[in-house]
Amino acid sequence: MKIFVSSNWQNILSLSIGIMLMLTVSDSYASDKKLANIYTYKSSSGVISFSDIEPLDVDFSRYRFDCYACKVDSLIDWRRAKLYLHPYRDDINQAALMYGIDPAFVRAVIHAESHFNPQAVSKQGAQGLMQLMPATAKELGVKNSLSAEQNIKGGVKHLARLLRKYKGDNELASAAYNAGEGAVKRHGGIPPYKETQVYVERVGILHQRYGRFSHLNK
């Protein structure tokens, strides 16, 4: 499915049509338990296009509709899934060193949040590798959440604050990162949301696995 919008039309119209397409594709994929993607790109003639098929030979942005590790009925074997040991190594290590947290934990959160897709945008509006919400990004001083360097630095700063707040408890920090600090406070711990519970579990598994290879990422 493709929709084309002339660059002469107002941006609001193009955005509206894009959102309609995103929602349509998201609903159809949800029924099949598949991952939905929407691609947006601009042709050489200036036409803005939205498609559920990956474009060829043009620069494009990809939008996702889910938190990668939040799918309750995921069939992924998280103890055997492919790890991403090298992407963004320097940015992750530098940010982790700056804020005093384990880079393996950062890598686990990135894997869980976006599967290392720097252009990921959720239906709630979270953006980039560490899926920062616009308000959170602004608070963290991140001007462009789709910049891998800025996103990682801001996300790690946020994670470090959560770890300080929860006295180094990775599970509570993960829960707050996913469901919000208010939910953790209301429930006195990990909220009883299936999505959050599986997220915390999977981040823990990924953290342990990435930690085994920490010597390769220095």
UniProtKB/TrEMBL annotation:
PANTHER family per the UniProt record, alphabetical: MEMBRANE-BOUND LYTIC MUREIN TRANSGLYCOSYLASE C, SOLUBLE LYTIC MUREIN TRANSGLYCOSYLASE-RELATED
Leader sequence segment: none
Listed GO MF terms: peptidoglycan lytic transglycosylase activity
Family affiliation: Belongs to the transglycosylase Slt family.
Membrane-crossing segments per the record: none
GO biological process, one term: peptidoglycan metabolic process
Annotated Gene Ontology cellular component terms: membrane
Domain spans labelled Transglycosylase SLT: 92-195
The species this protein was found in: Colwellia psychrerythraea
Superkingdom, natural source: Bacteria
SUPFAM superfamilies in the cross-refs: Lysozyme-like
Protein name per the record: Lytic transglycosylase catalytic
